[in-house]
Amino acid sequence: MANEAKPCPCDIGDRFNYEGCGQEVQVEHIKAYVCKPSGKSDKAVIVIHDIFGWQLPNTRYIADLLTANGYIAICPDFFVGQEAWKPSNDWASFDDWRKTRDSSKIDKEADVVLKYLQEQCGAKKIGVIGFCWGGAAVHHLMLKNPHLKAGVSSYGVIRFFHDAYNLLHPTFFIFAEKDDFIPLEQVALLEQKLKENCKVDYEVKIYPGQTHGFVHRKREDISPQDKPYIEEGRKDMINWLNKYI
Questions:
Q1: Residue 179 annotated among the catalytic residues of the structure
Q2: Which of 24, 70, 198, 213 is most deeply buried (CB count within 10 A of its CB)?
Q3: Transmembrane residues, as ranges (predicted)?
Q4: Strand partners, 126
Q5: What gap in Å lies between CA 14 and CA 18, rounded to an integer?
Q6: Which of 77, 179, 226, 236 is catalytic?
């Protein structure tokens, strides 16, 4: 079960030493990292960061992975200039920190980013992925935003989710079997409620032996036992986007 003394288990994990292939841009009031494929593409994916913010190299690595698969990828600063969480911060202050960074209050920023992708990048089909805090944000957008085609929520913190399950778009939910913060009972309940209420395609998948953050916070070369699951999670993410975008 979750450790209540540490309200989010977000160990920064293996921080990648990664420069990124894209560039930082200003999109109205939001800073963002953008990477575009060498060829023309009308498909785009919004990448929603975790509590460590839009500049985490690991998240930019995933954005570049999407670009390598033919997508325009954008990772905006959904904290809009507010400071990201730091590993040195006191976990006792986490809930207060999160009050001004609500993963369900991102609609204005999402609309700005969608407009940029459509008008400046020529995107016609747009999806969204997110990790941890961003995974909860994906659930919110899949309930609310009619302009997206599909979503992938990676270990989205279920206690941050709306108690609503009538998703508008196909959504893939990635969870880790040994996630200290998202008990498997919560995942089972989520799956049950989706089965009862959701009219679009969805999938809930639990990856054996994995912990919170495994898709984007673990390096294959130093976690050999986890490598097959890291690769599987990333491949499943790409396959879901390819199927519905």
A1: yes
A2: 213
A3: none
A4: 44
A5: 11
A6: 179
